[in-house]
């Protein structure tokens, strides 16, 4: 189809990570295993929180949301990437590309806002422990979670619409592992300065604003921890935030590096590696971080495994 003498493509070709067959097979096996671990790990975290009443707190309510976001984000990218590792023709239809951009961008935005919400939760837990249950009541937690999902989705919808209104002409080769925002914008055969401004604005609103809120929360948290007299009290307060802080450092770092300055963005290879990190490694690492560094989660695992052991023994006899 043609509009204003400019040809619009019906499908895109994703160049992926490598054109070498042996490398692609190796990556297929590696990423398939990683994806399976990601789905299993996050599913087990959600199940554990559901089954253990001691984890029915605001912190683990938000962690459940984070696990759902992680699995969904990985699923929006990894299955298609796995299929393309073994395919000779790595095509993705125009509509599918738009859908992938919408879901991956939206889920990424939801995660950033959700991490800011979780930072506020940790701030209240450390700085106002006596009023924690009053402040972080169920209604507020639900509203904060809804705000995270709605803000990420609305931003993604706007970015997807304005991106796919650009005429791509005959440019259909996306040098990326997925239909990533900057990679698609680069295909346009018209001036994209307005799109780059929109990306900058949305990055400030949906990335830098939550990051600043996280930063302010942890400044207050650290200030409060330093005022605690006992060493044991300081260690307990620090462990309350350690898992979340680890995820925040990993999650915000490279995204700020990638999206805040589109004109001086990293190389295409770096963009691909960053996308692999967020689509494959981060969703797999999050449940591990919260399991390994969290006493409550480890205690819940031990309790659940103990119950399963007892049940198995009874069935065996």
TrEMBL record:
GO molecular function, one term: olfactory receptor activity
Function field: Putative odorant or sperm cell receptor.
Gene (UniProt): LOC122905166
Full protein name: Olfactory receptor
Family (UniProt): Belongs to the G-protein coupled receptor 1 family.
Record-linked Pfam families: 7tm_4
UniProt main location, coarse: membrane
Keyword line: Cell membrane, G-protein coupled receptor, Membrane, Olfaction, Receptor, Sensory transduction, Transducer, Transmembrane, Transmembrane helix
Cited SUPFAM superfamilies: Family A G protein-coupled receptor-like
Lipid bilayer topology: Multi-pass membrane protein
Gene Ontology cellular component terms for the protein in this record: plasma membrane
Regions crossing the membrane: 25-48, 60-78, 98-120, 197-219, 240-261, 273-292
